[in-house]
Amino acid sequence: MIVFRGLQGFLGGSMIPTVFTTAFFYFTGQQRVIAAAVIGTISSLAPTLGPTIGGWITDNYSWHWLFFINLIPGTFVAVVVPMLVRVDRPDLKLLRGADYLGMALMAIFLGCLEYTLEEGPRWDWFGDGTIRATAWSSRGSASSGSSSTLMRGGRRRCRTRSARGLRRCCLCSTDGRSPP
């Protein structure tokens, strides 16, 4: 159960950026502003109301109901989405251009920062060697990661393509060329 909860958090982390990207692709002009506001509101309310409602369900019923309550909507989504959503075939060549070093350094930065901030008060902040080490690791990976990403991502061509041709992305012009 712990492994699946970890997977849920890992996969759920990509959901919000994907939803915003999809909204900006399908909506134009003033509709983009409205879509961003609605998505932002929903994504802010969910982590706020979720634990509150989950606590109420646990107190009044049982923690088992936190799983049972998701069976009907989960089954509905699992059946309906493949029928209604047309998914393009993935372009696996795009994986070659990913900034894996930047992603690894960002994970180290966030992990060390979280550990430092969470365990620091308990272990006398910088009086503890482990806290000092994670703080310096966090700082080092943040500066190395930002340098790596800026150096790698400099003037690459946009590789965002779809069945309709080139898409507009925030860093490129409509024809896929790098900005001046």
Topology:
Layout: H1 2-12, H2 15-26, H3 30-60, H4 65-68, H5 71-84, H6 100-119, H7 129-152, E1 161-162, E2 165-166
Helix pairs in contact: 2-3, 6-7
Structure explained in plain terms:
- It contains seven helices and two strands, in the order αααααααββ.
- It has 180 residues and is mainly alpha-helical.
- It folds into two domains: 2-84, no CATH class; 92-166.
- It has a two-stranded antiparallel ribbon with strand order 1-2.
- Strand 1 and strand 2 (165-166) form a beta hairpin.
- The radius of gyration is 21 Å and the shape is extended.
- Mean pLDDT is 77; it is low at 162-168 and 170-180.
Helical segment tally? 7
Query: How many structural domains in the coordinates?
Result: 2
End-to-end Cα distance: 50 Å
* Sequence of strands across the biggest β-sheet: 1-2
Strand element count: 2
Order of SSEs: HHHHHHHEE
In short:
The chain has helices spanning 2-12, 15-26, 30-60, 65-68, 71-84, 100-119, 129-152; strands at residues 161-162, 165-166. With 180 residues, it is mainly alpha-helical. It has a two-stranded antiparallel ribbon.
